[in-house]
Amino acid sequence: MSLVLGALAGVALDLRFGEPRGWHPLVAFGRLATRLEQRFNPGGRGWRSHGVTAWCLAVLPLTLVAALLAQLPGLGWALEVIALYAALGLRSLGEHALPVAQALRLGDLALARERVGYMVSRNTAALDATGVARAGTESVLENGSDAVFAALFWFLVAGAPGVVLYRLSNTLDAMWGYRNPRFERFGWAAARIDDGLNYIPSRLVALSYALLGRTALALRCWQRQAPQWDSPNAGPVMAAGAGALGVSLGGAAIYHGREEQRPQLGEGAEPRARDIERALNLVNGGVLLWLALLLLAEVTLA
Questions:
Q1: Tell me: the pLDDT tens digits for 78-102?
Q2: Quick one: signal sequence residues (predicted)?
């Protein structure tokens, strides 16, 4: 059966069941990554070559296993669908974002800060309602690209091995890709590989956001603002997303006790609770758009 039908099945499983309960394969992978980092980066003394070795040991064997399992007669297609389901985070994104918006609507700022803290790495303890809404909206736009669209893209490109390679690489970037004394050298490879794997998907996501919102503004923000952002992939996604929604994102944020002044993204009013929901609708709409275009291409080329 086709990868398009596999994509539809994987998305349907994610929407129906969400993340696997009780045990998630990425949790076990995280433990493996932690042990590899302890082995190859003791005390933060690992070099780039150690990071490359650790990345290869973590990612390549499991990608090969996925490729071999996908070839099994009868079971291969089902295993590919399960791999995509395990890699997607569409329902989970809503389960994290909607409680933040609901807490803001109820005026429970303490709960809103707590819930948005599950989504972002910045310090949320001193955020006002606007700051919480900004953090939540930014997280939905960026994580929609990382946790949904990029996984779907690599599944369509290379099936189970593609989505496994991407999801494991993205997980290592989240664990090792920091610019601090411990990971600056060791995590270099994980960060650069993740940048490469996200380059094309992030720009397709930015275009999708633009088409589903205020298109002209989104494209203008993408062109003018994205180059100012420190991430080559988050910049286009968040600038186009903010423009599509007609809100202003970016600005000051506290990471690890230090305030960072980030460039403005988008244009318009400060975000509110409803903009978290609108960002989530943008992600959901983008998934529907991708699947509709894939089905159209499947039918046309059949």
A1: 999 999 999 999 999 999 999 999 9
A2: none
Angstrom distance (rounded) from CA 269 to CA 281: 18
The residue among 51, 14, 79, 7 whose CA lies nearest residue 169 is 51
**Do 140 and 280 form a contact (C-beta atoms < 8 A)?**
yes
Element (H, E) at 250: strand 248-255
pTM here?
A: 0.94
CB of 164 within 8 A of CB of 87? yes
Q: What is the DSSP string of 50-73?
A: HHHHHHHHHHHHHHHHHHHHTTST
Say what the pLDDT of residue 1 is: 59
Every domain of the chain and the residues it spans:
3-301
pLDDT, tens digit, for every residue of 2-38? 889 999 999 999 999 998 876 788 889 999 999 999 9
What distance in Å separates the CA atoms of residue 31 and residue 27, rounded to the nearest whole number? 7
